[in-house]
Design goal:
Layout: H1 2-14, H2 25-29, H3 32-35, E1 46-51, E2 61-65, H4 68-71, E3 76-80, H5 86-95, E4 100-104, E5 116-121, H6 123-139, E6 147-152, H7 156-169, E7 174-179, H8 184-196, E8 201-204, H9 207-219, E9 223-226, H10 233-245, E10 253-257, H11 275-289
Parallel strand pairs: 1-2, 1-3, 3-4, 4-5, 5-10, 6-7, 6-8, 8-9
Length: about 290
């Protein structure tokens, strides 16, 4: 019996049965780049459901697109947070315990289930990337004391991350903080107030508030950035699908993706950014994500 117990424990720690044995979930997530880029060709062995705008390409995995209702019960179902919330997905996970479910871009900490995981991104690091891009935009403009603005609720840690990224490019730039509620109309008012204070790039968290801020920037011919511009949900989805193809499933909480995971980077940039500046900004982000920048 002791030999059997020792063998099972070894398998657990090797990741052949489950993830765990003292490895933090964010540390595990940093292997995503190596895990999802295998060139080995293999016939599909695992059916993975995908709900929403996610691109999943993993050797050995057959991707099935559809609705949560039609895909429930598959070994793994990846669901974009733009399509459903944690409560709805948790209810499905309880009703269909044969399958495993991952909410891509949303937390499931409040709805913990052994077969349910949330794939979340380090928003403070996404904010840092937004500030870095903003720095390249304002450094391209002539004039002293360039100004960038953070618009929205008092998420001070996110605003601080954006400021850090901005100052890594333009140390003397000013980050204005225009606090508002999440109501889109108030966010737009805050954006216009920041523009009147001299801001030429506006940054917002996201959602309807972020869209309102971006629209206000575009109406004035300025640049608007949101944290979602720097989150790559499909990278996280591919990592989880690759883990499942190897028999490893995640649940009972969130898996956190930071800069080293490859799931943060430039997903899209505001078309108002000049092409030459966009190239510089993308290169700077890639350098930071690659660990080559401080």
């Amino acid at each position: 019996m002791r030999l059997i117990a020792a063998t099972v424990l070894a398998l657990l720690c090797a990741g052949l049965l489950l993830v765990g044995c003292g490895t933090s979930k964010e540390t595990v997530a940093t292997t995503v780049a190596a895990t999802t880029t295998s060139a080995a060709a293999a016939p599909p062995r695992l059916a993975v459901g995908v709900v929403g705008p996610l691109q999943v390409t993993v050797p050995g995995v057959k991707v099935v697109h559809g609705s949560l209702r039609t895909l429930a019960g598959l070994p793994l179902v990846l669901v974009s947070s733009s399509r459903t919330g944690a409560k709805t997905l948790a209810a499905v996970a309880r009703r269909e315990p044969r399958g495993h479910y991952a909410l891509v871009g949303g937390s499931t900490e409040a709805e913990r289930q052994p077969n349910l995981a949330g794939l979340v991104f380090r928003e403070d690091q996404a904010a840092r990337l937004a500030g870095l891009v903003a720095g390249h935009v304002v450094s391209d403009n002539a004039g002293a004391s360039p100004r960038v603005a953070w618009i929205g609720p008092q998420e001070r840690s996110l605003a601080a991350g954006a400021t850090r990224g901005l100052h890594s490019v333009v140390p003397d730039a000013t980050m204005l903080r225009q606090w508002t509620s999440r109501v889109p109309a108030r966010c737009k008012e805050g954006a216009l107030a920041a523009i009147s204070r001299g801001a030429t790039v506006l940054i917002a968290h996201g959602g309807l508030c972020g869209e309102a801020v971006a629209n206000a920037a575009h109406e004035q011919g300025l640049v608007g950035l949101q944290l979602g511009d720097f989150e790559l949900p499909s990278v996280a989805a591919n990592w989880v699908a690759s883990e499942a193809e190897h028999g490893i499933y995640h649940g009972d909480g969130d898996v956190v993706f930071g800069l080293r995971s490859g799931a943060l980077g430039v997903g899209r940039l505001d078309p108002a950014i000049p092409a030459a500046v966009a190239v510089q900004a993308r290169a700077a982000v890639q350098e930071l994500v690659g660990g080559l920048a401080p």
